[in-house]
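Pasting as-is:
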Amino acid sequence: QLQLVESGGGLVQPGGSLRLSCAASGFTLDYYAIGWFRQAPGKEREAVSCSGYKDGSSYYADSVKGRFTISRDNAKNTVYLQMNSLKPEDTAVYYCVKEGGPHFTYQATCATWLDYSGSWGQGTQVTVSS
């Protein structure tokens, strides 16, 4: 079964840091663009950050540039989102999703990933509060 499992969320004070993990199960992260969306209560889901494969691109929402960093660990088949200088407005459920695949590498770009319309996992809750 192909699965992405998010973890690493929690409660943190403003200015603090968290590292989210997205572990792939049943497949390798090679050939995929992968990244994070988030959804805060009462708000629409928004793209946060992506790591592309086809074109080596990356994407960061303006609201997180300079504070969040996405990275891949191919040996662990995991993608991370390092979140620093967290703000209360970063509070949301964070979801990890992918685009592309071994036979669809032309779709493994952040541009395609931004139009993601597939299914969503349970996500991981991030709460920034004092």
